[in-house]
């Protein structure tokens, strides 16, 4: 009697199907990482945002959460304003009055929230809204505030 090899645990077809599914899933996550909604406002790099915030040319608003501010600090020259707070719009409007309606640049962790909020604010009638798509941690738009070694100040609430 001839000896036969034991059956393979995974067939080639199953391996190819699983590999294909993994590639499609990975591609979907990569596209999601790179996706940022387009808006009619401008964009600034983190270095430009820092320089313009320090000079007073723009109002830089960090729209992340208090937990995020506590973890990394707040960019120098930025005003921390949690976009999830119930009084966000009123607080932003108040800041605009205090700063004589300077253009507003929004920064978040990776550029997604700031791009979405920029679109919403422009649609709501706010004037000069600028996105900082690199964010604090960096994104496909660039290295971000921290990796660019720009200064932050601690936030303790």
Can you give a write-up of this model?
The protein contains 6 helices and 7 strands. With 157 residues, it is an alpha/beta fold. The chain has one domain (42-153): Oxidized Rhodanese, domain 1 (3-Layer(aba) Sandwich), CATH 3.40.250.10. It has a 5-stranded parallel β-sheet, with helices on both faces. Strand 5, helix 5 and strand 6 form a beta-alpha-beta unit. The longest helix is centred in the first third of the chain and has 23 residues, at 12-34. The protein is elongated and about 95 Å long. The mean pLDDT is 88. This is Rhodanese. It comes from Tritonibacter mobilis F1926.
Topology:
Blueprint: H1 12-34, E1 42-43, H2 46-55, E2 59-62, H3 66-72, E3 74-75, E4 78-80, H4 88-98, E5 104-107, H5 112-123, E6 129-131, H6 144-147, E7 152-153
Parallel strand pairs: 1-6, 2-4, 2-5, 5-6
Antiparallel strand pairs: 3-7
